[in-house]
Design a protein that fits this description.
single chain, alpha+beta, Beta-Lactamase, Alpha-Beta Plaits, five-stranded antiparallel β-sheet, four-stranded antiparallel β-sheet, 9 helices, elongated
């Protein structure tokens, strides 16, 4: 004989199921409509008691997820192996997006489901933060070499034209020996800030080595790309001259168009940068190289 919960016991049981106040326990009928829900549903702006026709779970989700929810619920009763939980965004009454993980269990034949919507906003924020951290240089806040390689490869593989600019700091090691790592860290942060100021917002900026930076400029030709590249170098070298002293770093730069593949583009950029260094020019020296 089954145990019948009192109203108070039922409320306590729901609190045990939900890990936070944002989690939602649902009773869904065979047609997919929400017939009962825990208090968490009210946080989305849904008041079942005030509705003549209760919404379906798909009604609360973003339109592109509606079909996935229907397919998930349709598969549950007949599935021999439970399908994986479904992550989906629901919209609040004021338009905010809240992410939930849906798990539903069928209740008898044609009687609908008991479902749990577990709030995963915090989890997704942690995952997003971990992803950003894995793609970001912690010292400068620019993209790191891994992110740079992935983005350059993507731009080339997609057939999008553009220009790669490489920046190199001369005498960086001498500066490190003379003034220590703190001074060098400050120099690198200053270099990154100059790049942010000199480059356009759609340019992809990265630190790809101890003393090397890069900028990806999609849909640019060489003539257009040289302007901000030259500007960043002139700003940096002007600051270096104001500081004085032979041990201060100098910046060289080179621009090359995207070539046929990632390796060819990066190799062309590095060769052009070697030529810029060999020229002995303290201000920017941009090398034009055909793809």
């Amino acid at each position: 004989m089954g145990y019948e919960f009192t109203a108070r016991e039922g409320a306590a049981f729901l609190r045990l199921l939900t890990g936070s106040a944002r989690d939602i326990v649902l009773r869904i009928d065979a047609g997919g409509r929400i017939v009962r829900a825990s208090d968490g549903l009210a946080a989305l702006g849904v008041q079942l008691a005030d509705m003549l026709f209760p919404p379906t779970l798909a009604d609360l989700a973003e339109p592109r997820f509606a079909g996935r929810i229907r397919a998930y619920l349709a598969e549950r009763p007949s599935a021999r192996v439970a399908p994986p939980d479904l992550d989906l965004p629901l919209r609040t009454a004021d338009g905010r997006r809240c992410w939930y993980r849906l798990r539903a269990l069928p209740v008898g034949r044609a009687r609908g489901f008991v479902a749990l919507l577990r709030s995963i906003d915090d989890l997704r924020e942690l995952e997003d933060a971990a992803f950003v951290a894995g793609m970001t240089d912690p010292l400068t806040g620019l993209a790191n070499r891994h992110a740079f390689q992935a983005m350059l490869a993507h731009l080339i593989d997609s057939g999008q034209g553009g220009v790669l600019a490489l920046f190199d700091l001369e005498r960086f090691r001498a500066l490190n020996l003379a003034h220590g790592p703190r001074a060098c860290d400050e120099l690198l942060r200053s270099c990154a800030e100059l790049m942010r100021q000199g480059m356009a917002r759609d340019h992809i900026l990265a630190r790809i080595g101890a003393d090397m930076f890069a900028a990806l400029m999609p849909e640019h030709d060489l003539a257009r790309a040289q302007i901000p590249t030259q500007q960043v170098c002139e700003w940096f070298n002007q600051l270096a001259r104001q500081g004085g002293g032979p041990a201060l770093a100098r910046m060289h730069a080179a621009c090359v168009p995207f070539a046929g593949d990632f390796d060819a583009t990066l190799r062309a950029g590095e060769e052009a940068l070697i030529r810029a260094r060999a020229g002995g020019v303290l201000a920017a020296r941009t090398i034009n190289r055909a793809a």
